[in-house]
Amino acid sequence: MSISLIRPLIVAEGRHGIDRPVKVSVSAVDAWFGKKQVLRNVSLDLFDREVTAIIGPSGCGKSTLLKCLNRINETVPAFHMTGDVRLDGRSVFEPDLEINQLRRRFGWVAQQPNPFPWSIFENVAYGARLHGLVAGHHDTEAYVEACLRRANLWDEVKDILRSPGNSLSGGQQQRLCIARALSTEPEVLLMDEPCSALDPTATAHVEALIDELRARLAVVIVTHNMQQAARISQRTAFLHLGVLVEAGDTADVFIRPRSELCGRFVTGRFG
Ligand SMILES: Nc1ncnc2c1ncn2[C@@H]1O[C@H](COP(=O)(O)OP(=O)(O)OP(=O)(O)O)[C@@H](O)[C@H]1O
Ligand SMILES: [Mg+2]
C-alpha cells in the first residue's frame, strides 16, 4: 500500500483542540536503524489529558515511535530520523533545549517492571532529588508518599518503605515503576506494553490507574491487547510496516475502521 493512499485515512476530529489541546505533535517522521527504514512519514497528534493507544503487529515501529518522542532512540548509534516532534508547540530538537530537562517531561514505563535495586522509598525519591523537586528529608518523605498514592500503591507499601523494590509482586513493582515515572513530574507518560508481564488482577489495577492519571497527563500506551486498547484509550493509532495507517477516536477505529487492514487487525484476523 502506498503512503499516499494511506494518509487520507487519518481522522481529524473537531472536539480535540477545544477542551484538549495537542500536547505532542509528530510531523512527517521518517526513521532508520542503519539502512533499514522503520517509520515512514508518520504524523500524529497526541492530546493532553487523554490516553492514546498505539497498536500494530510486532516490528511495525510502535516502540521506535514512542522513543522518538523523548529522543531516547538517539542513544542507539545506528539510529537517525527526519521530521519533527513538538512538545507544547516547541520542537524537541531545538538546539538550546536541555536533553535531560526534555526527558524529565516524559515519564517512561517499560514492559518488564524494572525497579532500581534499592528500597521502595529510594526508587521514588531518586528522580525527585535529581531534578531538585524536593529539599530536605521531611519534604522528600511527603513527596514520595504523594507519588505512591498517585500510583495507587501507598496503602500496600506504607509500612515497608525500606524494603527492596524488587521484593514486591510483579503488579506492585509495575505500580512502583509508575510512581517512579511520576516522581519527576512528567507531562506525558509513555508506556510500552506495561501490562504484558502482569496477571489479570495486576493488569486491572494498572488500567484503573492509567484512567486516573489521564486527568492530569497525556498518556501514550503501546499494547498488543486489543481489549485493553479499547477499554482504556480515547484515541487509537494503528501502525503497519512503519506507516500510520489510521488514527482517530478509539470507538471509530474499533467499530468503524476506515481501512480494511485496520479492521482485520483489531478483529484479530492478522498480526
Ligand atoms: N536498537 C535497534 N537496532 C536495530 N534495529 C532496531 C532496533 N530497535 C528496533 N529495531 C528494528 O526496528 C523495527 C521496529 O521495531 P520496534 O521495536 O519499534 O517494533 P514494535 O512495533 O515495538 O514491535 P514489538 O511489538 O515486537 O515490540 C524492527 O524491524 C526492529 O527490528
Ligand atoms: Mg515494541
Distance between the termini: 17 Å
Could you give the order of the helices and strands? HEEEHEEHEHHHHEHEHEEHH
Q: Which ligands accompany this protein?
A: adenosine-5'-triphosphate, magnesium ion
Anisotropy-based shape: globular
Rg computed from alpha carbons, rounded to a whole number of angstroms: 19 Å
Strand content: 15-25%
For the biggest β-sheet, the strand order reads: 6-7-8-3-9-10
Question: How is the biggest beta sheet arranged?
Answer: 6 strands, mixed
- Residue stretches low in confidence (pLDDT < 50, at least 5 long) are 1-14
Q: What's the number of extended β-strand segments?
A: 10
Q: Which structural class is indicated by helix and strand composition? A: alpha/beta
Count of helical segments? 11
Classify the helix fraction into a percent range.
Answer: 25-40%
Whole-number mean pLDDT: 92
Walkthrough of the structure:
- The chain is α/β, with parallel strands linked by helices and 271 residues long.
- It has helices spanning 3-6, 62-69, 99-104, 120-130, 137-150, 154-157, 170-182, 200-213, 226-232, 250-255, 260-266; strands at residues 22-33, 36-47, 51-55, 79-87, 90-91, 106-109, 188-192, 218-222, 235-240, 243-249.
- It is globular, with a radius of gyration of 19 Å.
- Residues 1-14 have low confidence and may be disordered.
